Amino acid sequence: MSSTRVAETPVLSRIWTPKVACTATLALVFLCGSAAGALVMNQGLHARLHPPAFDTPEGKAMHFDRIQKELSLTPAQSEQMESILNDFWQYYRTVLSDSKARIMQVLNPAQQQKFERMLQEYQRQ
Fold first, then answer.
1. 51 and 40 in contact (C-beta within 8 Å)?
2. Residue 48's pLDDT is what?
3. CA proximity to 21, closest of 13, 30, 10
């Protein structure tokens, strides 16, 4: 009689234990989240959430457009503001370059390599 009970027990009920069901559910939720994230990234939402840095050409243009629109600049003001901001951006890049050179003089070669990696990681963010 006991052999008939084993045969009557559905195969799925022996395979889908609570532990297996929980693991499968978590895996499915993870995969759905990954797919949703990939879709959002593909649609360009990431770029809107993380605008370009202001010292990049794209960032310069975006910030200048915002200033122009929000302040309702006249064409003459826009021209002057663009010149001033270009001077600022050039100054900013010069300060960064000079500071980096000064830092590199302080560090030994191994530290310089680590510092370069740190800068690269920062630029990717």
1. no
2. 67
3. 13
pLDDT at position 113, please? 94
Q: Tell me how far apart the alpha carbons of residues 115 and 117 are, in angstroms, rounded to a whole number.
A: 5
Residue 124 — φ and ψ, nearest 5°?
-75, -20
Residue 67 · residue 81 · CB < 8 Å: yes
Closest by Cα among 37, 71, 19 to 63: 71
Place of tokens 């510092």: 115
Going from N- to C-terminal start, the domains of the chain cover 1-50
Tokens of 41: 């990234």
- Write the DSSP string, 45-70: HHHHHSPPPTTSHHHHHHHHHHHHHH
**Tokens encoding 23:** 């693991």
CB-based burial of residue 4 (10 Å sphere; 0-12 exposed, 13-18 middle, 19+ buried)?
exposed
Based on its alpha-carbon atoms, the radius of gyration of the chain, rounded to whole angstroms, reads 29
Determine the Cα–Cα distance for residues 71 and 107; give it in Å rounded to an integer.
45
Q: Judge whether residue 54 has pLDDT over 60.
A: yes
Contacts of residue 41, Cβ cutoff 8 Å, sequence gap at least 6:
none
